[in-house]
Amino acid sequence: MELLVAIIVGLLLGLYFHKRKAPMTVNTWFKGLFVMLIFVIIASGFSHIDDIKRGAKEGAKEMDVYDIASKSK
C-alpha cells in the first residue's frame, strides 16, 4: 500500500516539475522527497488504524490500573 502511494505521489510530483519548466534544485528535490514521505506515513497510519485504536484502548486501561494502584498506597 505504501509503495503504491509513493509511486502515485512521485508521478504527480514529477508531472508537476515537468510542467513547471524550471530546473530542479537540491532544495526542491528534498521538498519532493519530504512530501512523498509525509504521504507514505499518512497511508501507513490509515492502513493500521485498527492497531492504533487497540493500542490506545489498552494504554488507557493500563493507565487506569496504575492510577488505582498508586491511590491505594
TrEMBL record:
Alphabetically ordered keywords of this record: Membrane, Transmembrane, Transmembrane helix
Name by which UniProt lists this protein: Uncharacterized protein
TM spans (from-to): 29-49
Species of provenance: Staphylococcus succinus
UniProt cross-references to InterPro entries, sorted A to Z: Na:dicarbo_symporter_sf (IPR036458)
Single GO molecular function: symporter activity
Keyword Membrane set for record: yes
A Gene Ontology cellular-component term: membrane
